[in-house]
Design goal:
mainly alpha; about 5% strand; about 70% helix; binds zinc ion; four-stranded mixed sheet; about 450 residues
């Protein structure tokens, strides 16, 4: 009996009713994956080397539009920071590609699965599957660790951005692990259970569960999870508070609170965000942001964030995310019932145990390779939203203050003023500073 027909005779996950669509041919799928992977690699290397060359070529002079506002030393620091991060990105890309090939075509996931199956004999289908997910995540985290450490304690440190101590790093990691387990394991168990028990249309149920989970996180993140990692204090500056409340009233927003977060514990990068939905909305300023910007500039930055809400960008992004995950679950529903899906990536489906965890892992490994090609589309949509939010900020606060704030934040984050245009078109979720400031100047 051939391997495929043996698997198909098992009652576990093989669903023959979905046979209207032609089955997945393993060789065709591994070929498509290989081609997509090579193409995306070539694309990433080409774009990043363009970026490095462009930034290095413009290192010696501040662009005309910024002469007088940006000192040469800041411009050169931004160039060096961009180049260092890009080079590091290419190295980690090469490493991650090897790891991905190891998991898939070279049979790594299959070997891990055999080991976990052996170790969990007698545990039952669910415990085996959760053990597989945990083992995979732990190995993945260990492989990532040196890269993360190098990024934080070498690159960020060298440019003066890292404020994290080793002690804080370890504490963060342990807390992150605990939160991940407490949140991740139940939702993983629920989805695995639905995959096994909810019949042909399990993916619809699983999608519903996933959406519910996401909404729950949206509520829990600002109120329960974020406070585990940072201190949030009510905005103490009465003058600024009155200014911000005035703006929110003008724009028709009711926030539950204005908070300052001690972002400076970890990083010198500044930020502000608006979080939650319904009556649980809150505004969070990083202390690093408040240190750098004056009152009118803070107001302009917040007006930009409110613009995202007024133009329904937040809702739009949520609906898009819901639709994409529905398509994703439907695709997973189809693929997970196909022997060819597993065989394409050198995984032998289980004969006597459910294959749902295997399908989930393979899906999460493989889909990003194809999804990469949608990056420019997502970036473009995001940049359009940013222009709209800027225009809103100009109408509700001062465009000149927003421009001043953007320049300061740009300098503090060592963002380059001279990105490669093609690279920026492809990756940038925010318009390059020159385009943004030009648009601000053209506002009425
Ligand atoms: Zn924005």
């Amino acid at each position: 009996m051939s391997f495929e027909s043996a698997a198909l005779s098992q009652p576990y996950t093989w669903n023959m009713s979905a046979s209207l669509i032609p089955p997945v041919h393993p060789l065709a799928l591994s070929l498509a994956f290989t081609v997509a992977l090579l193409l995306s690699l070539a694309c990433k290397f080409w774009l990043t080397s363009r970026q490095v060359r462009h930034v290095a070529r413009h290192r010696d002079a501040v662009p005309d539009a910024f002469a007088g506002t940006v000192p040469l030393s800041a411009h050169q620091k931004a160039a060096d920071y961009t180049v260092a991060r890009s080079r590091f990105g290419l190295l980690s890309l090469a490493f991650n590609t090897v790891v991905l090939l190891g998991w898939t075509l070279l049979g790594g996931l299959d070997s891990l699965n055999s080991a976990v199956l052996d170790a969990t004999i007698g545990w039952g289908g669910m415990a085996y599957q959760l053990a597989l997910l945990v083992a995979f995540s732990v190995i993945g985290a260990l492989l990532d660790l040196p890269w993360e450490l190098y990024n934080t304690f070498r690159i960020e440190q060298r440019f003066g951005f890292n404020k994290m101590t080793w002690k804080l790093y370890v504490a963060d990691s342990l807390k992150g692990l605990a939160v991940g387990a407490i949140i991740g394991l139940p939702i993983a168990a629920l989805i695995l259970w639905l995959m096994g028990a909810a019949g042909t249309y399990w993916w619809l149920w699983a999608w519903g569960a996933w959406m519910g989970f996401n909404l729950l996180i949206l509520v829990l993140y600002p109120t329960v999870i974020a406070p585990l990692f940072n201190k949030f204090e009510p905005l103490p500056d009465e003058g600024l508070k009155a200014r911000v409340e005035g703006l929110m009233q003008r724009c028709g927003f009711a926030a539950k609170g204005l908070f300052v977060m001690d972002g400076s514990r970890r990083s010198a990068h500044g930020n502000a965000y608006f979080t939650g939905f319904g009556p649980a909305k809150r505004v969070v300023f990083f202390d690093t942001l408040l240190e750098r910007l004056n009152g009118p500039e803070v107001e302009a930055v917040l007006a930009h964030e409110l613009g995202h809400f007024k133009h329904k960008h937040v809702l739009k992004r949520m609906v898009t995310m819901f639709a994409i995950s529905l398509a994703g679950f439907a695709l997973l529903g189809w693929l997970s019932a196909q022997t060819g899906f597993y065989l394409a990536f050198s995984v032998r489906p289980n004969m006597a145990a459910p294959n749902d965890a295997l399908a989930l892992l393979l899906f999460m490994l493989v889909v990003p390779v194809f999804a990469f090609f949608f990056t420019p589309l997502a970036s473009r949509m995001s940049r359009k939203d940013e222009f709209q939010a800027d225009a809103y900020a100009c109408a509700q606060a001062s465009g000149a203050d927003l421009a001043a704030a953007l320049l300061k934040l740009h300098e503090d984050n060592a963002g380059t003023l001279t990105p490669d245009p093609v690279y920026a078109r492809f990756y940038y979720s925010h318009p390059p500073a020159s385009e943004r400031l030009a648009a601000l100047q053209n506002q009425p």
